[in-house]
Design a protein that fits this description.
single chain; 163 residues; mainly alpha; elongated
Length: 163
């Protein structure tokens, strides 16, 4: 028995969950609204933190801002993953074949990797540059990458409706 690479996508798209996402009048729009709320939480929190790393609001300690915003960003990512998966089921074969969707997934992975690298290396020394000292170049580079990656992810999500 051979399995086509898109076989599981067709199976997923024919599931009762996918049918519900397509057939129930308010389900897909409600899930999409929740997805947008997840975007707001993740990208809003990340952007505020990134802007601080780039020199805005220098009086706010970086470590304190991270403690405040990171739980919101994680909640947003979780909400985005859940709702994105639900929306994917409704259009699995279409999205699975879309280069824009694959780019979006790569951008999400890159955004998460960028955050992990930032927290593993530059952020470990935050006590030395928390308030009074300039943000190190590696942290600034991570902030710029974050802003570009998450903005590009949003752009790809919108482009899915057109490509």
């Amino acid at each position: 028995m051979t399995h086509s690479p898109t076989g599981w996508l067709a199976w997923l798209e024919s599931s009762s969950l996918a049918h519900a996402m397509r057939q129930w009048l308010w389900l897909y729009p409600a899930v999409e609204i929740a997805h947008i709320a997840g975007i707001v939480l993740l990208v809003g929190a990340a952007a505020m933190f990134d802007l601080r790393l780039l020199g805005l609001s220098r009086g706010v300690p970086v470590a304190a801002l991270a403690r405040h915003l990171l739980p919101w960003a994680r909640a947003g990512l979780g909400l985005m993953a859940l709702t994105g998966t639900l929306m994917f089921t409704a259009h699995a074969t279409e999205f699975g074949a879309s280069p824009v969707f694959r780019i979006k997934l790569a951008l999400i992975a890159a955004g998460c990797l960028n955050a992990a690298i930032f927290h593993r290396w530059p952020f470990r020394t935050v006590t030395g540059w928390d308030v009074a000292t300039a943000t190190p170049p590696a942290a600034k580079a991570a902030a710029v990458a974050s802003l570009v990656l998450w903005t590009s992810t949003i752009a790809c999500g919108r482009l899915l409706a057109y490509f």
